[in-house]
Each structure stands twice: as C-alpha cells, then as structure tokens.
Amino acid sequence: MENENTISNILQAVDDSGRHYRDSIPMIASENILSPLVRRACNSDLHGRYAEGLPGKRYYQGCEDFDTIESIGIATAKRVFNCKFANIQSTSGTNSNLGVLKALTKPGQTITAVSTADGGHISHARMGAVGMRGLNLTTYPWDEDRMEPDLDAAVSMIREVQPNLALFGQSVFLFPTPLRELSDAAHEVGAKVMYDGAHVLGLIAGNQFQDPLNEGADVMTGSSHKTFPGPQGGFVLSNSDDEKFQKRLNNGIFPGVCSSYHLHHVAGKTVALSEFEEFGAEYAKNIISNAKSLAEFLAEEGFDVLAEDRGYTASHQVLTRHGGIDSGAGRDAALILEKSGIITNMNMLPGDSKAMSPSGLRLGTPEITRLGMSNDDMKDIAKFFSRALIRKEDPKVIQNDVKEFKSNFQTVNYCFEPSLAYPGL
Fold it and tell me: Tens digits of per-residue pLDDT, 27-73?
C-alpha cells in the first residue's frame, strides 16, 4: 500500500507540473516544449537500449535500426548547422562541454572563458566542467555596457595568458560575440577555440544570430532543448575535416563522458532536426522578434531593462534589474511572478556576486513563441509584469487573468503535426 501511495503521489506531481505550465506563462530562457513527433520518438522502446560506439561500429547487437536513426541524425545535423562534423550523442550541453574539454585539453593546462558573474555558464567555471578537468581558468575582461567581452582587453589577455583553449559563449547571452577578432588572437598563440552555443543554437541554425564555425571556432557545443526545440540533450559540431580531430571529438563523448547515451533522446533529437530544417528559420526569427518587443514593452512599463543603448537584445533573452547589487531583488521578483502565473528565473547581473540573492531576472521567449505568441502578446505580458511588480496587485487575481490569457496558447507550432502542448491534462 505504501508503494502504491508513493507512485500515486509521484504521478500526481507529474500531472500537477503539466497543469502548472499549461496555466502559466513559461519564460525560462533555457527551456522549450516538445513537438508531438519528438515526444513519440522519446516515449519509445529505445528508452533503456544501448548502442555504444558509432553507426556500424557497435559493442552491442540489435543496433541496426538505431544505426539508421543516428546516421540520419548526423547527416541532418550537418545540413542544419552547415558543418562537416556532428556528434549527436551527448546527453546535455554540459555533457558536450565535458567531452570537448576531455578531447582538447589535459589537466593543468589553461583555459580562458567568461566568468559566471558576467554570464558564463557554470560548466565554464572551476565549480563545473572546467574544474573537473583540472584546468587553470582565466576569465575575460567584461564590457558591461555591451554585455560581451571587452574586445581589446580580452585580446591582450589572450596574448598574455596564451591559453590552450579559448572558450566563448555564455548562459546570459544577449548579443553575438565578437568572435573573429578573439579567435584570431587565440589561434595566434596556438589555442583551440571552443564556442558554447547552448542557449543560441537554434538562432544560429536559423541564421539569425552569428555563425561561429565560420568565425573562427574550431568546435561548437550546444544544447538540444533551448532555442533549438528538441528533447534534452546536446551536440558537438565542427567544420574541421581533419579525421584525427574528428576522432578526438567523438572519443571525448564516447567513451569519454558517455556509455549509453539515451537512444530515445537521440531519436527525438533527429526528429527535431528534421522539423527544424523545415520550420527553424521562421521560428528563430520570431523568437528574437518577440524578445525585442518584450524588452521594449517592459521598458515602457518602467522596468530597468539592460543594454538599452544596443536595443536591449539580439537573442531570445531579456535582462531586467530589480534592485541594488546582491540585493536579492531578482529572487523576490521571481517568486512574486510565479505566484502570479509567470515562470522566470532570478539571475546574476554584472556586479552581482551572490547567486542566490541576485538583482536580476533572465527572461526567455523560446517556449512562448513556440506556443504561438507574437509581438502584440508581449505587450500583454509586460503589463502582467507591471501589475505584479510595480503596481503590486494581488497575485491570485493576476494568476487568474494569466490563466485566461494562456488558454489561447495551447498548441505546439513550428513542427510537422501541430498539436496540444499539454496532452492528457
């Protein structure tokens, strides 16, 4: 009986989570929602199967059908990302980063990256993958006004430090990185260049952001579930046609950081690649258009939206500051918004040093765009923000209005079979 109650509680919580998101406005920049066909591929017999190795070179029998899936996925990824090499096995963006760090560095070597305080991802830090690999880390000087590495100072630093690997890209990612100049400096000192495109991978594939592999990056990693709208997982991509280099990258993932690599997610990733090839450019364009509109409407409502001089954003993200440095105002704002039916995340902004009490919010438009929202709807969302955080209306009243608003956006779009976003509820 106890086990039955436990299972019942778990399944109830699963359904409750679905209802929570169904009735709320989901604005986590690192999240997205699955299309019906991707969901079908993920919820298949491939769950729990093994296929260590590469297509045609497996350590298990029974992999012929999966060989077909992975081969199609690799070929499609090369087209979607316009590159010569693709590994689609990694189970997350961080897993991709770990694999590349294993492939291209040795413990005790030096890496340069964006600090977490300036928006770098935790996997770029000593607390994450960089530390696990035992690398010496130097972070780039940061231009707070432009929300990117200070170009001249970063170039000088790279030439002085002479890293083995120069890592670019971040978790707070408003604008393209000035990658050509930074890559040139890294290559001058013999460093490989790695670009973590986890957040902006769909924008890159949709030709709406920048083209890292043609701007100097030797390898690009990324997540398959943010602006690229697939299941949770990762990519490793390169334009190198050096077979030894490609082998190092493959070996970094398997056997480097993966044994089984979640075959059902690889199948879902392959379906997502096919859908993105058809619908991705329009989707990426609309994600950015919505982010720009959201930023403008929030500013009109009186919010402190970062990077005003640069037009607020050129990506899927918008940053707002809600109080003094390390004040915890971002945390407080996120909690109020959730009670009001808007799901966001607190985030450190330049100057903050305390991850659990930052001053800012990071807002994203990938999921709400996929649910069919457009520029005009961003004005309504900005007004919900104002009601909750400026006018301080009763969150329960706002939540009811948000639920009614969200009822008009219950379909997954930019896919072959647009369908109900929250099936079974």
Answer: 999 999 999 999 999 999 999 999 999 999 999 999 999 999 999 99
As given in the structure block, the two tokens for residue 382 are 């900005």
Mean pLDDT of all residues belonging to the chain: 96
Tokens of 327: 């004040």
Q: Which CATH class name applies to 279-420?
A: alpha beta
d(CA 374, CA 195) in angstroms, rounded, equals 30
Q: What share of the chain is helix, strand, coil (3-state, %, to 5)?
A: 45, 15, 40
Alpha carbons 212 and 123: distance in angstroms, whole number: 19
Q: At what angle do helices 329-339 and 395-406 cross, to 10 degrees?
A: 60
Residue 222 host element (H or E): strand 219-225
**Distance of CA 237 to CAs 83, 173, 331, Å?**
7, 20, 35
Q: How far apart are CA 20 and CA 247, in angstroms?
A: 44
Fold of 38-275: Aspartate Aminotransferase; domain 2 (3.40.640)
Cα–Cα distance measured from residue 254 to residue 261, given in angstroms and rounded to the nearest whole number: 9
- The amino acid present at 241, given as its one-letter code, is D
- Cis previous bond, 163, omega within 30: no
Q: E strands, 303-359, where?
A: 304-305, 317-321, 342-343, 345-347
Tokens of 348: 């450190």
DSSP string, 75-96: HHHHHHTT-SEEE---SSHHHH
User: pLDDT band at residue 425, thresholds of 50, 70 and 90?
Assistant: confident
CA atoms lying within 13 Å on the CB side of residue 28: 12
pLDDT in tens, 400-420: 999 999 999 999 999 999 999
